[in-house]
Amino acid sequence: MTIETIDREAGRDNLLSVSDLGREGILEILHQADAFAEISHRPMPKVPALRGRTIVTVFFENSTRTRLSFEMAAQRLNADVLTFFSATSSVQKGESLRDTVQTVDALGVDAIIIRHPSSGAALQASRWVRASVINAGDGQHEHPTQALLDAFTIREALSRRSGQVVDDFAGLRVNIVGDVRHSRVARSNVLALAALGAEVTLVAPEALLPISTEGWPIARVTTDLDSTLDSTDVCYLLRIQHERMAEAHLDDLDEYRRHFGLTTERAARLGKDALIMHPGPMNRGVEIDSTVADLPNALILDQARNGVPVRMAVLFRLLGGPRTVGAESGDLVE
Ligand code: NCD
Question: What's the chain's Rg over C-alpha atoms?
């Protein structure tokens, strides 16, 4: 059950793909995130778990939620945080990805959180550095922490409703709707939600479906959103990824909205308990009507909020152990 894997050499100290974790690893992170979510309600919402560690966000693509929540997560764990902006860096003088990440690594950082437009960039970076590497989105390949925070958000909503912790998504019908072909969020979510037992359906126009879904752990694929509305528990909408389209796949966004947008009329046909999700940034009026994005069962801001405890849990998992100095000596300083 793999998605066109770029190859997994991920050591336990990197997070490059959801498949590095498996069901047990995902659940461990979600449980750890529960504890960190509790901390955020304290008057002083910080713990010293990563004091003395340094993390750096190295983003070659724009971001609001992912970068800010990683940085906030690191700060809440008392790590030191550096931010690299490619637009004002030596990348503009032609410095390569390899020289850039090796320079950052040479400073002595403990984790490099990387976002890059090329699929496979995080894996490649992990081979060049000694710091832990976290994939914050590589091209159209994967975005594992987004899938973890989405799973956490679904679990939170289901648990609130049933009055008990819901770790098993068996029987949960999730529709992932829209530009699946170019979406790293879709790939990571399919892996994470299926690992937790959900039944995932991909809904997209032919041109925005992956060329092949062989090996994807999905229940089905359809081009007919309307036929799925009354049998979905989670309607997960994707942004049209204009920046990843080499050729025009969509001439007419109104036409897209007519067939694949979650309009007010379509939202009214969802079951009353159905959850609506979107990773952001949203194109209001294209894949989701503005009024739908603001409905009480739309969890978009919960997703953003949950990015912090989930990313705290990921950082803690990778960096929370005793620190070793020198790969060979293994001397402990803590
Ligand atoms: C996503 C991304 O960048 O992959 N956004 C995010 O991280 N919340 C989705 C998108 O850009 O459409």
Answer: 20
Give the three-state DSSP class for 303. Answer: helix
Q: Whose CA is nearest to atom 11 of ligand 1?
A: 281
82 and 176 inside one domain: no
Q: How far is the CA of 331 from the centre of ligand 1 (A)?
A: 39
Residue 146, ligand 1, Cβ within 6 A: yes
Q: Report the 3 state secondary structure along 1-60.
A: CCCCCCCCCCCCCCECCHHHCHHHHHHHHHHHHHHHHHHCCCCCCCCCCCCCCEEEEEEC
Task: Residue 298: give its domain's CATH number.
Answer: 3.40.50.1370
286 and 329 both lie in a single domain: no
List, for residues 271-310, the tens digit of each pLDDT value: 999 999 999 999 999 999 999 999 999 999 999 999 999 9
Range of the domain at 260: 145-303
Closest approach atom of ligand 1 to CA 115: 3
For residue 7, the model assigns a pLDDT of 43
The response to whether residue 279 sits with its C-beta less than 6 Å from ligand 1 reads yes
Is residue 137 lining ligand 1, measured as CB closer than 6 Å?
Answer: yes
- Residues 120 and 118: their CA atoms lie apart, in Å, by 6
Does residue 9 have a pLDDT over 60? no
In a domain, 7, yes or no: no
Q: How far is the CA of 307 from the centre of ligand 1 (A)?
A: 12
For a ligand 1 pocket test, name from 64, 138, 146 the mutation site with the most ligand atoms within 8 angstroms of its C-beta: 146
Query: Are 102 and 190 within one domain?
Result: no
298 and 329 both lie in a single domain: no
Q: Is 14 a domain residue?
A: no
